[in-house]
Here is the input.
Amino acid sequence: MKKLNIILAVVLIAVMAACGSKKTEVPSAYAYTTFETTCMGVEHDGSQTLRAWGKGNNKADAIEQAKKNAVYDVLFKGISGNGECARRPLVGEVNARERYANYFNPFFSDGGEYMKFVKEEKSGEKSRIESKASSQTAYGIIVTVDREGLRQQLEKDGVIRPGTTH
Here is the structure.
């Protein structure tokens, strides 16, 4: 099922690029589907370009959630992919999210520190994939996550040890 969802996402991206439309809308049933964050590339500075997904009551909530999900995945899940895209999580400690809840809860709050490390690509509306249902909106957006900046901040704040391989 996951492979089917990933294939569907890739097909939707290809259709979106071919049409050159303002944004791509997909059937409302997909507003309830969970998609994985996928790597689109690694920049020379070590930052990762990702397709991240978020859900919310409206467009703004869904886009903010997608940004949070991108940073969360870089921190705790890692990003799968081929070659340079495959990256282990920055925080390899088991249950680190819970252990450092006093740190990460404010970090991931709306408008929190996570915003310093993620930005949406300039293509904006053209790169977005939208699915709306009656009670939920889902968006797939392209973001760049400053992986090196995150690592440095976590080391400075004592969440990970300096020099740990990530």
